[in-house]
What does this fold into?
Amino acid sequence: MEKLKKQDPNFAEMVERHKSLESKLEELRSKSYLSAEDEALERALKREKLHLRDQIDKIIRINKNVVLPA
It folds into this structure.
């Protein structure tokens, strides 16, 4: 994955965004009470994070099937 991040700035950006979303979700999880706004934000963050994870996994799968010349 590190090689992909170096080769593809868009991929690296997706990975960083995914990490950022996880941090924001951790902040929400640390609260003892979530307001309706917080719950809506949590759902939106989870959706975005899942979408990014799907994109990241797709790129990884595609690149595993590509054989680069030595």
